[in-house]
Amino acid sequence: MNCLFCRIIEGQIPSSKVYEDEYVLAFRDIDPQAPTHILIIPKKHYDSVLEAGPRIIGRMTEVAKKLAVSEGIAENGFRIVINTGEEGGQSVKHLHMHLLGGRSMQWPPG
Ligand code: DGP
Q1: 4 FRET partner, CA 20 to 30 A, in 11, 30, 54, 84?
Q2: How many angstroms is it from 10 CA to the middle of ligand 1?
Q3: How is the chain split into domains, by residue range?
Q4: Which one of 6, 30, 60, 94 would you pick to mutate in the ligand 1 pocket, going by the greatest count of ligand atoms within 8 A of its CB?
Q5: pLDDT attached to residue 57
Q6: pLDDT for 1 beyond 80
Q7: pLDDT tens-digit series, residues 39-86
Q8: Confidence class of residue 89 from pLDDT cuts 50, 70 and 90?
């Protein structure tokens, strides 16, 4: 299996897991861009959000919301990001949602 995040799902690469169910895995980003930086990924491989349907996107979003509360970033605010494609800054070709919080965010993003 060539996909990095599929290997994390299979346990072949260690990760700091914060949530797991039948469909979704969430773990801390190896290169955090904020005090809380969690990646939420589907267990089924999709190259990007372009391939994924509303059910899995909805599940991932619900997990992100729950984690925002449990991480203590819901009240002050947080950001959910899905980088897509080259110009979107997607470096890992397995759909993932970034949950970022714990600091003030800038807009527009770089
Ligand atoms: P993106 O640039 O949107 O494709 O985000 C990919 C993210 O994945 C990036 O923030 C760094 C993170 N990442 C890359 N390799 C690993 C890894 O082996 N473990 C973990 N936990 N995160 C990783």
Answers
A1: 54
A2: 16
A3: 4-101
A4: 30
A5: 98
A6: no
A7: 999 999 999 999 999 999 999 999 999 999 999 999 999 999 999 999
A8: very high
Check: CB of residue 79 under 8 Å from CB of residue 62: no
Residue nearest to atom 16 of ligand 1 (CA): 30
Starting at the edge strand found earlier in the chain, the sheet holding 24-28 runs 17-20, 24-28, 36-42, 97-101, 78-81
Residue 90 CA to ligand 1 centre (angstroms): 9
Own/partner long-range contacts of 23-26 (Cβ < 8 Å, ≥24 apart): 23/56, 23/59, 24/56, 24/59, 24/60, 24/63, 26/63, 26/64, 26/67, 26/99
- Asked if CATH classification 3.30.428.10 holds for the domain at 4-101, the reply, yes or no, is yes
Could you report how far apart the first and last alpha carbons of the chain are, in Å? 32
User: What DSSP element (H or E) covers 20?
Assistant: strand 17-20
